[in-house]
Structure formats: C-alpha cells, structure tokens
C-alpha cells in the first residue's frame, strides 16, 4: 500500500493564487512515482509544477522526481511569484 501523499506546506497558497488569476489546477500529489505536484491549465496551455518548500528540503528532488523531470521537464516553484511566472511564460 502506498502511504499518504506528502504535500508541501506552501502548496495550498500557491494553488489558491493560481486559481485567483484564472488557472485551473489539479493536484497530482497522490500519484507519486516522481510525478509533479500540480497540473495547471492557463490560457489554453498545460503546465506541470513541482512545489518545493525552501524551509524543508529546498529544491532537492527525490530520485523518482529526477527521472520524471528529465523526461517531462516540469517547473520547480517555491513561491506564489515563481508559480505565476511559470504559467505566464514571460507575458
């Protein structure tokens, strides 16, 4: 059996901020196996975001995350500002 998904302390505030700017957000945290925490749709584009808490492990990835990230290239975010910038894509 898989243990409960770990969700970083800052994930809720990041999700709330993304939704406030009009993004659709689905948590993928329970999937495990290195899959990023969030699937975000904003202005017709999909984004994979890995939420990290700098007060915890920082930006360090697990071995499973390293493998997934090498193939799919999600964006690692630690703050609301980074998450918004990631979905805006330089707009």
Question: Could you please describe the fold and organization of this structure?
Answer:
With 91 residues, this protein is α+β, with helices and mostly antiparallel strands. The chain is 32% helix and 21% strand. It contains 3 helices and 4 strands. The chain has helices at 11-20, 63-72, 80-88, and strands at residues 24-27, 38-42, 45-51, 75-77. A 4-stranded mixed sheet has the order 1-2-3-4, with helices on one face. Strand 3 (45-51), helix 2 and strand 4 (75-77) form a beta-alpha-beta unit. The termini are far apart. The mean pLDDT is 91.
Describe how the helices and strands are arranged:
Elements: H1 11-20, E1 24-27, E2 38-42, E3 45-51, H2 63-72, E4 75-77, H3 80-88
Parallel strand pairs: 3-4
Antiparallel strand pairs: 1-2, 2-3
Helix content: 25-40%
- State the total count of DSSP E strands: 4
How much strand content do the residues show?
A: 15-25%
Biggest beta sheet attributes: 4 strands, mixed
Order of strands, main sheet, comes to 1-2-3-4
In sequence order, what are the helices and strands, one letter per element? HEEEHEH
Structural class by sheet pairing and helices: alpha+beta
Q: Which regions have little confidence, pLDDT < 50, spanning 5+ residues?
A: none
Calculate the terminal CA-CA distance, rounded to whole Å: 43 Å
Shape: globular
What is the number of helices? 3
Q: Taking Cα atoms only, what radius of gyration do you get, to the nearest Å?
A: 12 Å
Report the mean per-residue pLDDT as an integer: 91
């Amino acid at each position: 059996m898989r243990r409960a998904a770990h969700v970083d302390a800052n994930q809720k505030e990041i999700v709330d901020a993304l939704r406030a700017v009009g993004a659709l957000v689905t948590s993928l945290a329970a999937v495990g196996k290195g899959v990023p925490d969030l699937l975000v749709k904003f202005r017709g584009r999909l984004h994979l975001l890995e939420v990290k808490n700098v007060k915890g492990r920082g930006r360090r990835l697990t071995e499973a995350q390293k493998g997934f990230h090498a193939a799919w290239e999600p964006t690692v975010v630690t703050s609301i500002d980074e998450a918004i910038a990631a979905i805006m894509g330089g707009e």
